[in-house]
Specification:
Distance between the termini: 96 Å
Mean pLDDT: 78
Strand content: 5-15%
CATH topology of the largest domain: Multidrug-efflux Transporter Regulator, Chain: A, Domain 2
Low-confidence stretches: 1-20, 22-30, 112-123, 125-129
Radius of gyration: 23 Å
Helix content: 40-55%
Number of domains: 3
Number of helices: 9
Shape: globular
Structural class: mainly alpha
CATH class of the largest domain: Mainly Alpha
Largest sheet: 3 strands, antiparallel
Length: about 260
């Protein structure tokens, strides 16, 4: 009688977390649920600063409520992902603080899956999301910056003169961070209306004062040796930056309305 060979069993002693949740542990809902790691991968193209810790923070703030397996693993439904996308867009596009976002969601603004509109012809497409905790990333030579932003070298030199951008020298060549490249791009748009480097000193001074204020508020926590406390402080700094940006936008809109009345 022929013997049947049994397939070797796979050992189950593996350390698992939300990012590597095996399919065997997830039940089969009508539409596939995602682990927190899979959610990050699905959204990272639109939101480059998305992270597992940021999603968990939004959950701690009662903005997200993914279901849990009996083992405690998070599983995000398609509606959860749509809700998260809406939250991130409200932060990015409307500069809304979490308190206001919570109110918007409670009023029924959930699952807004509108695809971001492409930039109109002749208009620059801005980087979707900029984060305080995001690393500086790639460096760009002056030539790269000029080609990608359409700015003139004279404008960049003027921005350096007034401290709006700095760059750094490497091997005799000056390079600029991605954020500075975006600053040059924004200023080049303003330059079309006659706004020059000297006019931007007010923006530079305002940003310095705001950064110093937020630093004073969170300085003890940011200097803490406790990694968790530092992490929470950085997240709070991110939220405060969003709130102050939204406040500036509201004040500007209020004053501009007086002009068009």
């Amino acid at each position: 009688m022929a013997s049947t060979q049994q397939a070797p069993q796979v050992p189950l002693e593996r350390k698992l977390d939300d990012e590597t949740l095996p399919d065997a542990l997830a039940s089969s809902p009508p539409r596939k649920s995602l682990t927190i790691g899979a959610v990050c991968k699905a959204l990272v193209q639109e939101f480059p600063d998305i992270s597992i810790s940021k999603i968990r923070y939004l959950e701690d703030q009662k903005l997200l409520s993914p279901r849990r397996t009996p083992g405690g693993y998070r599983l995000y439904s398609q509606s959860d992902v749509a809700r998260l996308r809406t939250i991130l867009r409200m932060q990015r596009d409307e500069f809304l603080p979490l308190r206001v976002i919570r109110q918007e969601l409670a009023a029924g603004r959930a699952g807004d899956a509108e695809v971001p509109r492409p930039a109109r012809e002749g208009k620059r497409a801005w980087r979707g999301s900029v984060s305080v905790s995001q690393q500086a990333g790639a460096l760009y030579s002056l030539q790269d910056v000029l080609e990608e932003t359409g700015a003139e070298a004279k404008l960049v030199r003027e921005l350096e003169e007034y401290g709006v951008v700095k760059g750094e020298m490497r091997g005799g060549v000056r390079y600029y961070e991605e954020t500075e490249r975006e600053i040059v791009g924004a200023v080049s748009e303003l330059a079309r209306y006659g706004v020059g480097g000297r006019n931007l000193r007010v923006f530079r001074s305002s940003a310095d004062r705001e950064a110093n204020l937020l630093q004073q508020i969170l300085a003890p926590a940011l200097r803490s040796r406790n990694p968790q406390r530092r992490k929470e402080a950085v997240e709070a700094l991110e939220n405060l930056a969003t709130v102050t940006t939204h406040l500036k936008h509201l004040l500007l809109v209020r004053d501009l309305r007086k002009i068009v009345r």
